[in-house]
Each structure stands twice: as C-alpha cells, then as structure tokens.
Write a structure and sequence with these properties.
alpha/beta, TIM Barrel, eight-stranded parallel barrel, 16 helices, 15 strands, 15% strand, globular, Glyco_hydro_1_AS, hydrolase
C-alpha cells in the first residue's frame, strides 16, 4: 500500500512539550511572555512545564520506540539555543540537549525531521520588531546556519518555518497567538513576507554551504484545508473557493513553487480593496526584492499540514475595514454533514486530504510530499479507548494510500499530530491530540498509549512486515 521507504512519523513542537522554560540558560520566547497575560490562554495555562520533555526525553523516546516510528518530527527552541536570538551568545546546554535527542534517535534507527521555527520567537527579537522587522530574515538565516552546522551531519530533513499562515494571521491580525498583535489588513502580510524571505535565505545558505556534504532536504511546512464550493453550480461560490485557496495555501506556495510571487488573484484583490477604502499607506502586500535571493524553487519537498476541509460560499463584504477576510471577500462555511472533532474548527474529512494531495500534484508540478501534521482532537472526558480517533487514522491512511496508488501522488511520509498530549496553544491542555495521553495532574507526567496509538503502531508494523 505504501512505498518501501515511506516515513512513518509523529510530530511535536518545542514550546508545546519541553517545559524547562528557564532551565539550562534558556531565554524567554514570545509564548513565555504571551502566557503571562491573563485571559490569553484557556485557564491561564502555560508551557512552563508542559510534558517536561527537557527532563523526560527518555520517556518520549520510549514512546517513539513503542510506536515503531521510522521518523520523528520535532522543533528546536531558538531561544534555548540562542537566548538573545543571535549567534553572539550560544547556550551550550541547549546544544547538548538537542544533540542527545538527535543522537538517541539515530541510535534507534529513527530519522529526525527538525523544524527550526515553530511559533516561539525569542522575546529579545520581538522587542526589536519581531517578524514585522525586515532584519529578522538575516537573523533567522544566521540561526539556521548555526543549526545546519551543529546538527546537519545527522539531520537530513529540515523544516525552516512551520505554518507561516498561522503565525501571520493568528499572531498578528487576530491576536489569539503570540505575540498577540491585532493589526488587521497590514501586519499579517508583512510578517508572511518576512517569513518567506527568511526561509529563502536559509534554503540558499543550505544549498550553497551544506548540501554537498550533508545531502539533506529543506522546505517549509504550510497548512491548508481542502476547499470546495458550497454550491458547485454557483459561479460566485466557485470564485470564492479559488480566492480562499489563494489566500491560504497559495499565499506561501505560489512564491516558492510557481512564480516567485504571490498569486495574482490575491494581489489584485488586496489592491482593489485598498483603493476602495482609500488606503494611502502604500502596497499592503509587499513585493520581493531582486537584490535578495529568489524565493522561487526554495523547497526540496512539499511539507503539508492538513486537518480539515471547508465548503466555501461568497461572503458578505466586511464593510469599511481592512482585514484579510474583506480582502478575499469570501466566507467559509462548514458543511454540517461533516462530523466535528472536538474543537469547533475541525471537521473530520479524510477524503479531503486525498483531494488536496491530488491538487498539489497537479498545481505544483508533482513534488515529493510529506504530510508533516495530521490529527484528531479529543476534549472533555478522557477516553483512552478512543474508537473515533482510531477510525480516523485508519480512514485517513486509506485515503493517503489511494492518493499514492490511484492518483500517483508522490507521498513520501505521514506524521501524526501529535506524539503525545501537549500544550495546544491558546487552548492550553483542554484539547488532546496525542497518540499518548499525558497526565498533567500527575507530578510524574506519566504517558499512556491511547487505543489510536496502538492502532497506528499496528499499521506501521503491518507495512514493515509487508515489505
């Protein structure tokens, strides 16, 4: 059903699992700061301890081994390695921690996929403007080169930035993620632009200075729903769906995979809205400079985070305000026939992943694809015997197999989100995505495998035995 060398993985992120927020010389990140503010996170919870993976890494490794994973995706904490965000001050205890994680994985024949940035910018850099500052791209490039040089002899799969869309929109327009800014219609586009610049610089640095010796692959992880018109016979709904995909998936993939610039439908819509409202602050969607390394072609594979699908209809105008929704003039509507999984935004649509994979093949010239996140949430009463989630993984992986066999999509791997229950950003610990349950009321933070974890392990083992 799957290629011989298919990557079977699970994923985590540093702030969500590590804890040790002040341990071993680590500097503060924007999420450390964000969580100090009352009302930002469910129950005013934080990641100060989380799963305490900083001290309990061996427990995580045992979970990875029990599942039979061939790959493990995790992120580096920029502020644990470089407390002030710059290479002028390297925290050797942070280097030692990640060296141990990587060495232990390699010793167990588990390949690391390492994310350089998963939402947790050093607070020292936020104080200088963060992702809104043009200088952030060069600072990220320096950080990336430090990581390539330090860990690249053992790491062959790199993600530069995780979900730039989420960081830009939720962190700088909606204000519900760190750094909690609400600057609608302007900051998100600037942040997204600087993230693409940062990614491109890091990719070119790897390509020029490290690829020949280290022989790795580098990409950025984009999140995208699948989207369909609410009424397939309605031209307005079809057009709204095109805009929706352009303003989400297209925003970060068109520059990297297609043209080196943003989708024309996106740029023209933003310019039209600016003109309509008499915005005189200059172009809100920046242009790429010819004096900097090109962003086109800066991905060695397509890294996709997929969770849900949407039915889209033409939306109502947002009136005389600048925001992303008014720019695209489309409102997305969840089809009530799709079951909701725990959290309100997550409808369970396994075949949406297959459709999206086929779309990626046809739109982006058949790239190698890693599904770098996909999961099913649980809220409320704990269910270790999680039948629904077990079925979700079976159904989803069946759709991935169909995409490979019938649609001939070059899917190279699948990473479940997440290895274990963790700090789910503004939802705190109220939402559980893990293959392992973590008891956050237990001082030992015990890990217990869910039924879905056992089922995933069976699928992996069967694949290995079928080879």
């Amino acid at each position: 059903m799957f290629p011989r060398d298919f990557a079977w993985g699970a994923a985590t992120a540093a702030y969500q699992i590590e804890g040790g927020w002040q341990a071993g010389g680590k500097g503060p990140s924007i999420w450390d700061t964000f969580c100090l503010e009352k009302g930002r996170v469910f129950g005013d919870q934080n990641g100060d301890v989380a799963c305490n993976s900083y001290e309990l890494w061996e427990k995580d490794l045992e979970c990875i081994r029990q599942l039979g994973l061939t790959h493990y995706r995790f992120s580096l904490s920029w502020s644990r390695l470089l407390p002030d965000g710059t290479t002028q001050h390297v925290n050797q205890k942070g280097v030692q921690y990640y060296n141990k994680v990587i060495n232990d994985l390699v010793a167990c024949n588990v390949s690391p996929m390492v994310t350089l940035y998963h939402f947790d910018l050093p607070q020292a850099l936020q104080d200088q403007g963060g992702w809104k500052s043009p200088s952030i791209a060069n600072l990220f490039d320096s950080y990336a080169k430090f990581c390539f040089q330090t860990f690249g002899d053992r790491v062959k799969l790199w993600i530069t930035i995780n979900e730039p869309y989420v960081c830009a929109k939720l962190g700088h327009e909606d204000g519900i993620h760190a750094p909690g800014l609400k600057e609608p219609g302007t900051a998100a586009y600037l942040v997204g632009h600087n993230m693409l610049r940062a990614h491109a610089m890091a990719w070119h640095s790897y390509n020029h200075d490290y690829r020949k010796e280290q022989k790795g692959w580098v990409s950025l992880a984009v999140n995208s729903d699948w989207a369909e018109p609410l009424n397939t016979h309605c031209k307005e709904d079809v057009a709204a769906t095109e805009r929706y995909l352009a303003f989400t998936l297209g925003w970060f993939t068109w520059p990297v995979f297609v043209t080196g610039d943003y989708p024309e439908i996106m740029r023209s819509a933003i310019e039209a809205q600016s003109k309509k409202l008499g915005f005189n602050g200059g172009p809100r969607l920046p242009s790429f400079s010819k004096d900097e390394p090109t962003v086109l072609g800066t991905a060695d594979f397509f890294a996709l985070n997929y969770y849900t699908s949407r039915k889209v209809k033409k939306g109502e105008s947002c009136g005389n305000i600048l925001c992303m929704k008014s720019d695209r003039d489309a409102g997305d509507v969840l089809d009530p026939s799709w079951p909701i999984c725990g959290v309100s935004w997550l409808a369970v649509v396994p075949d949406g992943l297959r459709k999206l994979l086929k779309y990626i093949k046809e739109t982006f010239d058949n790239p190698a694809v890693y599904i770098t996140e996909n999961g099913f949430s649980q809220v409320g009463t704990l269910q270790i015997e999680d039948d629904q989630r077990s079925k979700f993984y079976k159904d989803t992986l069946l759709e991935v197999a169909k995409a490979i066999q019938e649609d001939e999509v070059n899917v190279c791997g699948y990473f479940a989100w997440s290895l274990m229950d963790n700090f789910e950003w503004s939802d705190g610990y109220s939402v559980r995505f893990g293959l392992y349950h973590v008891d956050f009321n237990d001082g030992k933070l015990s890990r217990t495998m869910y039924q879905s974890g056992r089922e995933y392990a069976k699928i992996i083992l069967k694949h290995k035995l079928d080879q």
